[in-house]
Amino acid sequence: MKKLRAFIPELVAVGLLIIAFIVSAAREPRFLDVAYLFDRSTLYTETALLAIALTLVIVAGHIDLSCTAILALVGAIVTTLNSKGLPFGLCAALAPVLGGLLGAINGWLVAKRRLPSLVVTLGTMALFRGGAQILLGDHSLPVPESFQHFEKLAIPRTYFHAPLFLTLGFAIAAGLLLHKAVFGRLVNAVGTNAEAARYSGVPVPGVLMKLFILSGAVAGIASLTLLSRLGVARFDHARGLELDAITAVVLGGTSIFGGRGTIFGSLAALMLIGVVQTGMGVAGVKAENQVTAIGILLLVAVLLANVTSRKKR
Q1: Helix (H/G/I), strand (E/B), else coil: 33
Q2: Which of helix, strand or coil describes residue 6?
Q3: 142: part of which helix (H) or strand (E)?
Q4: Whole-number mean pLDDT of the chain?
């Protein structure tokens, strides 16, 4: 019972997910079609990847608002290099490296110069997005048609498309890293009290540097899945998606102040958002009303988790 109480925010997200799924299935029979659900889930691949990486960053008590700008800039660089004659396979292999280097800029400013991550990543978000616009302008740059098939690749005899399998694998790896590895304990220690962690011998700058490099590298991988699905690179790709990812992380029970969070909670919350958005889209609800509903859902989930936690104490 005590172990269950420790996961109250996650249980709230799961409970709301079950309710949303039942309501949506009652209105739209396709929600009971497994193939349809897996097909829709591929649309949330990039958000899921970003949310998983952001869970680690937020557990450490920081934020990364530039992840989608990194995604756009990496996509712009990859397609530009390819248009100059570089093989696309090599360009694609460079994507996580480029993302990691851009993330290292955030990490250096936050970890080494001790600047607030909110301000730093807000600035680099504009910087990286501007860089993508300089490279591409208002035009789109196509990727090779052969790479666009990556989105459609599926594991034989399953409903898992390649991007979904990639996301699941990364989620498992991140979960083990956060909850079972020594590094995960260091991340939690930094998020709980950075100064106490520093006096206890935790290499706080090194931990933060690795987290922001990881966040950038994951954004680079996410840029490839988005390029595969859309077939072109644009400077405004994934604009605003960072807010969806952060919403999923917070809705899933990760403390915005750091020190607590789970990968499972973030993914459950993202599934909840996906079911709600899909259900409202099928019902003909306007996009602006969907955003309002997600905001209300976030507030309700946070309030429920807060009230339940107080009763537990």
Answers
A1: coil
A2: coil
A3: strand 141-142
A4: 89
Tell me the residue length of the chain. 313
H-type helices in the chain, by residue range? 2-5, 8-27, 34-41, 45-59, 67-83, 88-107, 117-136, 145-148, 162-179, 182-192, 194-199, 204-230, 241-251, 263-282, 287-312
**Residues 232-264: pLDDT tens digits?**
999 999 998 998 899 899 889 898 888 999 999
Q: Round to whole Å and give the CA distance between 178 and 309.
A: 23
Residues contacting residue 255 through CB under 8 Å, at least 6 positions apart: 58, 59, 191, 261
Predicted TM-score (pTM) above 0.90: yes
Which tokens hold the place of 251? 């809705």
User: Using CA atoms, how far apart are residues 61 and 97, in angstroms rounded to an integer?
Assistant: 25
> Sorting pLDDT into bands at 50, 70 and 90, what band is 6?
low
Given phi > 0 = left and psi -120 to 50 = alpha, else beta, which region is 63? beta
What is the distance between the alpha carbons of residues 252 and 169, in angstroms, rounded to a whole number?
19
Radius of gyration of the chain (CA): 20
- Domains parsed from the chain with CATH numbers: 6-312 (1.10.3470)
Alpha-carbon distance values, 90 to 94, 95, 150, 273 (Å):
6, 9, 16, 35
